Queue: 2 jobs
Job 1
Amino acid sequence: MNVKFVDRKGEQPRGVHFYAEKKVSKLDRFFRSDAEATVTFTNQKKGMVKAEVAVNAGGTLYRGESTTSDANASVDAAITAIERQIRKYKTRLAKRLHNEELTSLLAQEEDEEEQDDITIIRSKKFTLKPMSAEE
């Protein structure tokens, strides 16, 4: 996973960047190698640090942010939010795929039943005369 760091309103220590890279790399198990992560640190008033983590994987964007007095705690909270989003998305996808499989299986069974049970009992023919516009 490619990780980019952006520091706004001041620089973060190198140890914070190393810690954030270690935490973000744990998200690698959810994605293929084409995922890109951007970690943005913003120094705010009263010693608060805002950490924004955005992971772009296969056209899907997962984003988490947190503001605390400790940069490492902000990264942890943002990563937790992203993990929650990933689990939610994967569960939703699995349910949808499961429902699609069930409906396709049911449709196949109905088609097979219809093909096996069709017997012609009686057929009728009618001769129709054309109608005029007044009728």
Job 2
Amino acid sequence: MTKKTFGTFAGVFTPTTLTILGVIMYIRQPWVVGNAGVMGALGIVLLSVAITLTTALSLSSITTNIRIGSGGAFSLISQSLGLEIGGAIGIPFYFAQSIAVAMYIFGFREGLQTLTPDINPVLLDLVIFAVVMGIAFISTSFAFKIQFVILGVIVLSLVSIYGALFVNELNFNIQWIGQYPGSVENDFSGSSFWTVFAVFFPAVTGVMAGANMSGDLTNPRKSIPVGTISSVIITTIIYISLIFVAAVIASPDELAQNYNVFIDKALFGPIVLAGLLGATLSSALGSFVGAPRILLALGEKNILPKSKELARKSKKGEPVNAMLITAGLVLFGISLRNLNTIAPLLTMFFMITYAMVNIVALVEQTLGLPSYRPTLKIPIIIPAIGAFGSIAIMFVLNVIVALFSLIFIVLFYLYLVKMNIKSAAGDSRSG
């Protein structure tokens, strides 16, 4: 049976956009403006996007030079720096993508509880998980068709949020510099620029969503650059414009205290709630479809124990065993009930992946190999900023977690070196 593949819009642009425009945009961006003020919020958005845009450009440059296989960032890093480094980065990235599904399920449940406050939250989480897993198992193609419907709902919800400018009394006494009052959770005992940044940053970590589907794309070398970069540019414009919308439709106190400002003030609140539910469902779906493909790629390269089992596919080409293991990890994430303690660790793993993608582009450009002839050429300063920025921000956010993450990756790298994995193709180290 011929495996169905996807083009730029369905395979890269849509999943990337839907993963970026998620729960943070709907119920945390007004809080970001209420804490950091307009200038601080702009700084947080631009700094976050600087990391993801440099990574998207580095990713795009590399994919126009090599034939990227399944596994996205893992395939890309492995082909350039070897299977050992690729595997050491691929495993934490897989864990981050898998447990992120649980975070999106929690976000969906929070939105749903505004309609059904009396239902047990654990039961709601399990029902949502069953729906997400069911859709992913039916077929990837069906999951992508669902995403088009969700994209339509999100577009309508954005129209409704912008419509708030016409149905509310506007506040032109804008707070440009934030007072950082904090949040309901810490009894408004104060926050800081970096605390607010840490809350917002997961909003932009969907930049790899299209690359994770690299093995299912008709033309990855064309689709990943075009789909990823266009998605980052469009979502950045949306995030920046929403800062100003939030600043004029509510007072700074209201923005800091009420997470549902965009829903309450919208032209039509129910469609914004539907957008929130759709965005979290699509993010969960995108991660649940993408994560098993990273595990599949690791299995195909014999990096993990029982690799042949992990690399097994159904007649439709779906990585069934990898999806079952991912489902187990998602259930583990749901069982924790509170992901606040491991959320920084997930952010670290995303940051490390972004840093490594930029380092790959840096290494490839610095070596000046004749084989490195990307059709999309970028100045060397772009991957340098991306790599340095990712690592620096990791240590600014949490020194202990950053060190723990790096030690984990070094230990796994040493384990893979001992295994003496053989790659069918060479990598940049031989050059």
